[in-house]
Amino acid sequence: MRITDTSDLWWKSAVIYCLDVETFLDADGDGIGDLEGLAQRIDYLADLGITCLWLMPFYPSPDRDDGYDIKDYLSVDERLGDLGRMVEILRLAHDRGLRVIADLVVNHTSDQHPWFRRSRAEKDPAKNPYRDYYVWRADEPGDTSAQVVFPDQEDSIWTKDDKTGEWYLHHFYRHQPDLNLDHPEVVAELLRAVGFWLELGFDGFRVDGVPFFAQGPGKEGGDDLVDPHAFMKQLRDFVQLRRGDAVTLGEVNLAHEDQLAFFGGDAADEFHMQFDFIGMQATYLSMARQDARPLATALQERPELHRTNQWATFLRNHDELTLDKLSDAERQEVFDAFGPEERMQVYGRGLKRRLPTMMGGEPRRLRMAYSLLFSLPGTPTLYYGEEIGMGEDLAAEGRMAVRTPMQWSATKNGGFSSARPSRLVQPVVGDGYGPEHVNVMDQLHDPDSLLSWIRTLIRIRHACPELGWGELEILEHDAGPAVLAHRLSLESTAVVAVHNLGADPVTVTVPTHGFGGDPRVVDLVTHDVLAAPGTEVPCALEGYGVRWLRVRPTGDLAVP
Ligand code: NOJ
């Protein structure tokens, strides 16, 4: 391939940043973040270097699942602003070179959505055109407790509706009935919403809860009610027709082979991107063990993707840090290392913590973790506050622990809002990770801050298309299992990243094969040109140390 090929498919070399408008910046002083506040911070995000903003649900909602319970797909929660403000955000972001994607929640609505209100009013579909918008059954469902997503709140995926005496399906909370994605009118309504946001200027969607689209087992406990791939193909086709360069990014926490199916396999006609949940969980296992092998294996076992597809890599998101794809013993290892107390754990499968507390406040280890994230093949995704090392509020209910207000400064409410603290949408983190210790203002102009480190990592990504497009090779070396050395190659250039997951210093002999003798090796962080006699270069790494090297043939004058 040629370097000019990388000018298409923008998502393959993007850096994504996820935020919830209501916890980012409150401009009108009511204690709730808003679009006017976000507008004031678009330049901060552009300066950080991110290229794509993912907005968590901003739609009108009773807010019983932090906005993932939508009651109107075509407008904006009035606490956050209105469509006019949203257009301002899109315009501002686009002017600063950022794309914007919206969370798209099509698996379910809120039970307050007018469709569900109408659906439950009359059980005869002949009399009620909305009845089949949702999934109903007349017979007793039996025990489905093993299938619920939130076992602390629900014990069945079916709830009996008093109005008609029938049960409706909901994989998540009972106030989130699952839509019938096999119903042409439902699909048409959802595509209308997709078209609406694309027309307004959104550049794509993060699609929520994909594994549940199948809505199986069916009424008799048999096959799935919905073919999720048929739905996805329709969605992808529609998105592509309306906007050739819009992206769909799936939340598909499934085994790699099932993810491949959701990419559309060789046809690549479903998702453009999916989060790599398997790789993320292997990263934590590797960090817990100080042994790079689980991560190396997960990377090598990733299925090969069509050239238009991409993995989205991440270390943290707004949910529990799920470890559901590890074995019980492996999960326990991660719990022991990063969240040993019960109050740090949730749903028996995940952690309520953010990275800095998991890393025991050890800055070198934290920086190594982010360096690792940015070095992996794929598109890195940050969750707001990660760039400054925000902590969590363990006193908050479940997943709310990591949804605290953004910490801008050491002033009142961390500079998030001028409201009385009791009026804030969520309390600000109060302990050693509170705004007095962790905030943007203090880090912005400090070259040694985590924020500056993240900016450096993003700068490297922008200068190295190998990272988003290159071919992966896990390098053999002599420094023991704590070290991951991997290389991403594109044409006649490569980036080699070396990460020490262990606490002890090591020296690694890094192979630089494939470029003839004495290749040109540059340290991408320090800009030093390294002596690399022959086809290997010695690299000394501190405990939790990292090195980023660009390798090119001798005499190559490529810049940077
Ligand atoms: C996945 C989202 O990430 C999560 O926050 C939400 O609760 C469920 N989907 C239900 O919408």
UniProtKB/TrEMBL annotation:
Transmembrane segments: none annotated. SMART domains: Aamy. Signal peptide: none annotated. Residues 18-423 form the Glycosyl hydrolase family 13 catalytic domain. Gene3D superfamilies: Glycosidases, Golgi alpha-mannosidase II, Oligo-1,6-glucosidase, Domain 2. It comes from the Bacteria. It holds the Pfam family Alpha-amylase. GO terms for biological process: carbohydrate metabolic process. PANTHER family: ALPHA-AMYLASE FAMILY MEMBER, MALTOSE ALPHA-D-GLUCOSYLTRANSFERASE. This is Alpha-amylase. It comes from Ornithinimicrobium tianjinense.
